[in-house]
Design a protein that fits this description.
The complex is a heterodimer of chains A (about 375) and B (about 170). Chain A is α/β, with parallel strands linked by helices and about 375 residues long. Chain A contains twelve helices and twelve strands. Chain A has a ten-stranded mixed sheet with strand order 3-2-4-7-1-8-12-11-9-10. A two-stranded antiparallel ribbon of chain A has the order 5-6. Chain B is built from one helix and eight strands, in the order αββββββββ. The chains are: A alpha/beta (about 375), B mainly beta (about 170).
Chain lengths: ~375, ~170
């Protein structure tokens, strides 16, 4: 791998995930996070070269609704800006590419959107093609269940195993003040919850939630001044699969496998199993297992720690879940993970996804040391 | 490739219905509630002192929080305007009509509203106007509680008084 520019996460701020914030609009939820992220690295907004956000205008219910966030991101004097209709982790990926091009040293990355104001299941149904898939009412829960069936049939994974994975995430989530579901639950309890869409039980899927997140990236030379323990990006890659669900083997994720391989290669790492923790945008235990298989790690082993934050199962704000994984990796490596800290964490993997059934996958490999010298 | 069917299916219709239920937000809620009492609230930037109306939680310009809601006048000055001669979707207004940017006394940015009760060609930059409210008992805490603005007959204001409040 040729030498790339060392870029680090230097700040992360997140509004605790809630079912519905009755007091604040999406941008009003975001504003304090922008301020906190800037304060965390001790800079004024003028120190940030570039800004980028991820959100969905259909969730806002306003065409071009993303521009509302400009008012709380510090967009004056006129600034360079980009918005992606994607999980905000992909916005961070874009900012990282801009930094590799050398035209900015610092970037503010935001994610926002209030799912409680609209009907996200209807909205996400519209993600599918309007001829064959959307009219029959498929939504992410139904497509996730199709994927779960395919995976369980191929691997022999049992309902009990899904319950155990969900229970592990619930136990972790109980130690994280920013998640929506803060109570642990045993595998026995979860295995008794009713079907949401069989073979997924209500205990295996997250509630709808909303949040607002701000993350700051900075390149070597500035990152060290903005953060005492930056989380350096060692490698990253993203890959997407075809839109037609029927054309995919839903029991596997070749896009996750390829993106993970490429990110690990960029990081100079031989195996995902060598990192201390992995934060996956897995909204169900089956997605977690499919992603573990793509990464080549064993979901049953205690190392690397899987979703020490509790993962999306305990807090899944659409369009932000992936950026929160990157933020959680930063918290772990920067020693800011509080009660859910993985002791001595030095390397981490963070993952984000878009679309139905893990259609698009983005991986980050991060470490406490610079990748390139 | 076979020929298309003799009676081709040319379109697939989809009726998309997506209801939304927007949170007003505490800041906006106070503004809307005050309209019911014929009061207009703005928010003052804690750093620059600029007053924004409708109120915002932060100044988009300085990024500092606003720290105070202040009552501002229901009258002000036309800073810029246009004369609409084509029908607008969703509004049954007699053409032509005037839409103006109005800097209310005490505010540092303009709001947008109709100027009525005068001929369109009488409207000019610097013209003093006042709000015409819905009658008592009919206001419901909505932006529609102000029906429109009308000329006050006061002398026009000099450009310097409003050029930085467009």
């Amino acid at each position: 791998m040729s030498r790339l520019r060392n870029v680090a996460v230097v700040a992360f701020a997140q509004a605790p995930v809630v079912a519905r914030d009755e007091h604040r609009m999406a941008t009003e939820m975001l504003y304090p996070q922008v301020r906190r992220a800037l304060a965390d690295c001790g800079v004024e907004r003028s120190a940030i070269d570039y800004q980028v956000a991820g959100s969905a205008d259909y969730i806002d219910g306003r065409p071009f609704g993303f521009v509302g966030a400009l008012e709380v991101m510090g967009s004056w004097p006129p600034t360079q800006d980009l918005h992606l209709e994607m999980d905000a982790a992909f916005a961070a990926h874009y900012a990282w590419i801009r930094m590799q091009a050398g035209d900015c040293d610092t970037a503010l990355v935001c994610g926002h959107g209030k799912v409680s104001e609209g009907e996200p299941r209807r909205i996400l149904n519209l993600e599918l093609d309007p001829y064959y898939q959307a009219p029959i009412g498929l939504d992410p829960l139904a497509t996730a269940a199709l994927q779960a069936s395919a995976f369980m049939a191929r691997t022999g994974t049992t309902d009990r195993r899904l319950a155990e994975i969900a229970a592990r995430n619930r136990a972790a989530g109980a130690r994280n003040p920013d998640v929506q579901v803060r109570s642990s639950a045993s595998a026995d309890e979860l295995a008794r919850t009713p079907w949401a869409v069989e073979p997924l039980r209500t205990g295996y899927v997250p509630p709808l939630g909303e949040s607002a997140v701000a993350l700051i990236l900075a390149a070597e030379g500035k990152a060290e001044r903005m953060c005492d323990r930056p989380a350096w990006i060692h490698g990253t890659d993203q890959r997407i699969e075809l839109q037609t669900l029927g054309a995919r083997d839903l029991s596997r994720s070749p896009s996750a496998r390829l993106a993970a391989e490429r990110a690990l290669a960029m990081a100079g790492a031989t195996s995902a199993a060598d990192v201390d923790l992995v934060e996956l945008s897995a909204a169900t235990p089956v997605e977690e297992l499919i992603l573990c298989e793509a990464l080549g790690i064993d979901a049953d082993r205690s190392s690397p720690a899987l979703n020490p934050s509790g993962g999306p199962l305990v807090g899944h704000p659409l369009m932000m879940t992936g950026l929160i994984r990157l933020g959680e990796a930063f918290r772990q490596l920067a020693g800011r993970a509080g009660d859910h800290a993985v002791a001595g964490a030095r390397r981490a993997i963070a993952h984000a996804t878009n679309g139905h059934c893990l259609q698009q996958n983005l991986f980050w490999v991060l470490g406490t040391e610079r990748r390139w010298t | 490739m076979a020929e298309p069917p003799v009676e081709p299916i040319k379109y697939v219709d989809a009726l998309v219905r997506l209801p939304y239920h927007y949170v007003a937000g505490d800041c906006r809620a106070r503004y809307l509630r005050a309209l019911k009492d014929k009061k207009i609230l703005g928010a003052r930037c804690s750093q620059t002192g600029k007053v924004f109306v409708p109120p915002l939680v932060n100044s988009p310009e300085s990024l500092a929080p606003t720290d105070e809601l202040v009552e501002i006048a229901d009258r002000g000055v036309v800073t810029t305007f246009c004369i609409v001669n084509i029908p607008v979707i969703g509004r049954a207004l007699e053409l032509p009509y005037v839409v103006a940017s109005i800097a209310l006394d005490g505010a540092d940015i303009s709001i947008h509203a109709l100027v009525q009760e005068c001929k369109p060609d009488e409207v000019r930059m610097g013209m003093r106007v006042e709000a015409v409210w819905k009658p008592d008992g009919e206001r419901e805490g909505s932006h529609e509680d102000i029906l429109h603005f009308r000329p006050t007959g006061e002398p026009d204001m000099p450009r310097d008084a409003f050029l930085n409040r467009l």
